[in-house]
Amino acid sequence: MEHLLGDEWKISPAGGLTGDAYFAQNEGKKLFLKRNSSPFLAVLSAEGIVPKLVWTKRLENGDVITAQHWISARELKPNDMNMERVAQLLHKIHHSKELLDMLTRLGKEPVEPSTILEDIKSGMALELFSLDVIQKSLDFLTKEIKNVQFKDKVVCHCDLNHNNWLLADNQELFLIDWDGAVIADPAIDLCMLLYWYIPEQEWNDWLSTYGIPLTDDLRHRMHWYVIAQTILSVQWYHHKDIEKEKQNWLNYLERLLPVEL
């Protein structure tokens, strides 16, 4: 990394799971560097959804390094997710033709509910298959799959954890960490945000700010996707052998299931 910027730059790891992100600093100038970011980053930057992209350079080994402006910002707290700007930025993302065109050019195919269900089943450990709550959840997803079809696919972030939202000191709002973006039903994003952060009695108001009504169809699609997402979380923590978090998600899954099951 040092040879890209010169000896006067101090470079340090920025953390993260991949170890491919770095901070660079030189006399008050700060950059955020990342190895092998998707070309999608350029469009996100142009749309003002992530901090501004400064440059992109390809190394001799084929790696691509991107540099973004480092911003002074804080992560949103859970109770910040009810801010109007969160709903407005998510609406902008879901209605961006530029984002959709770029992901399509990158070869992303629209994700259907049947694909998600097959991925869940194929990645399910035998120990989880034997659990009653998992069996009931899979039965629900299978039974209702015909009732959650939605043709108007959009770019979905798919990880709207409050830690991925940055509020800059100048009050600009950004959504970062786009590695898991897909083309899919916007209910995938909406269910995560509403179920995890917004009291149900406030869903109507939040969605009104976002720009759509809370219909029975949307409510049903969100319920299907939040059950699917919760199973995926159970699977992830099971694979990582983090028992406490796995159990927390299993308990949450139990609460999500319709009483008639």
TrEMBL record:
Transmembrane segments: none annotated. Keywords: Transferase. InterPro entries: Aminoglycoside_PTrfase, CcrZ_PhaseVar_Mediator, Kinase-like_dom_sf. Residues 14-215 form the Aminoglycoside phosphotransferase domain. SUPFAM superfamilies: Protein kinase-like (PK-like). GO terms for molecular function: transferase activity. Signal peptide: none annotated. Pfam families: APH (PF01636). This is Phosphotransferase.
